[in-house]
Amino acid sequence: MAINTDKVQQQAADLSGQLWAIANDLRGGMDANEFRNYILGTIFYRYLSERTEQYMQEILKEDNLSYEEAFASTDFRPIVEQWSIDHLGYIIKPENLFRELNRKIIKPLGDGDKFSVEDYERAVKELTGSTLGHQSEAAFAGLFDDMRLQDTRLGDTVSERTDKIGKVISKIAEIDMDLNDQEFDVLGTAYMILIGLFQSGAGKKGGEFFTPVGPSTLCATLATVGLDEAKTVGDCTCGSGSMLLDVRKHLTTGRVGHYYGQENNPTTYNLCRMNMLMHGVDYQNFSINKGDTLTNDLYGDSLKLTVQVCNPPYSLKWDANPKFLDDPRYSGVGKLAPKSHADLAFLQHMVYHMEEADGRVAVLLPHGVLFRGGAEEDIRRYLIDTLNRLDAVIGLPANLFHGTAIPVCILVLKSKRNGNSDNILFIDASKDFIKGKNQNELSDEHIKRIVNAYINRKDENQFAHVANKEEIIANDYNLNISRYVDTSEEEQKIDISMVTNELFSIDEKIESVTKGLQNSFDELKIKCPF
Q: What pTM was computed for the model?
């Protein structure tokens, strides 16, 4: 399923302008890091509302009833409520629909029909309350906790808070949001744009929670080469869930059995679950856990995943307590990733959870993992020699991510490497990018070139090299790409005799000009300055 990244990037640019207008209405009393939660929460509420309308329209078509009419009927109401809980996982009453809230803001029928922030607060509480005691409760629990509608920083009075939230709702109603467009990640993109627009303290590390469309598409494509479907897909630092959701776009059938994720940041943990639902993933088909992946593996020992993609926080400091040597994820090497660089600890976690039959991993990491010594060298040796799962090392351009300008690499691992078990593919794609004002981008053509080189697995001058095991050993398991792919420009050959003749010619011209100047100074009876 081909993804048009150029189109998606244009959609993101359009969305940016709309979000800027909304954010300006909220500026003043609170930091951008806080008011973005109102924008994201309202985008999500609009989605759930429109999804309800779409579903009700489908199921009530034969009864020739509107949702409002069915809900008002004592006979139909219990039925549509049960349908909504079973299929959607929640209930939004007709009077709480997003379009109805917006209508009250724009065109109230009278004083008693005017929008109040308390209407929105009640609507959100009734939505989450409808899930209690049902299978969907865990998927919806706490999703709107960051949207504090009674916060006095929105305004000291109900009318002040009503005015601000009313503007947010009416402007979000103007956003072009197609429920059937599964290519464009509205929520994740909105999150990243809001961080970019306001360089708040939380925003400086925002890249940890959202992977730009180019690198995300590339990882998902590499991890799914040759796959029709995936029983399980996981991301152990899932952030907003953009990479998890990208995977199904690159499967031939687009079918994923179950999504698994773990995220330590509470805001983005909520955002990921919102994103799952906004992309049509049934609440029964995803399990997103909140917690520190490295110290608390909430996947459980038995979970094995078909496809894993990941963009962990680069060079994160972690506990590295010796007790983790007994953790089955790390015990094979006998050494832990250093406290100052947890990068390979994340990779070990993913390798442990790879499905034996045909497990795939594509992970974005800083280049240091390729050549740093000590425990990290031992981990590389273990992955290459003992497990033989490292399939490819791909270098990407610098400045692809918000919050860091460093170039990164993609490591591709496979549990069954078939005919490639005696080699590793190296690709240097560091020069292939579109230069942006604030951030560089990968185009569809750049992604296609990398993926084709991965599939073809042949030497390509200054771009790709298939290194056999002997080369890896000769380099002491140093995987620095420049050791395997020579991208240096050939020095221009110099014709020494020609250069010598040119120098003699220049000397003769200097001597001639000097004599002419000397004669001129003599005629003018001026002392020659040289």
A: 0.83
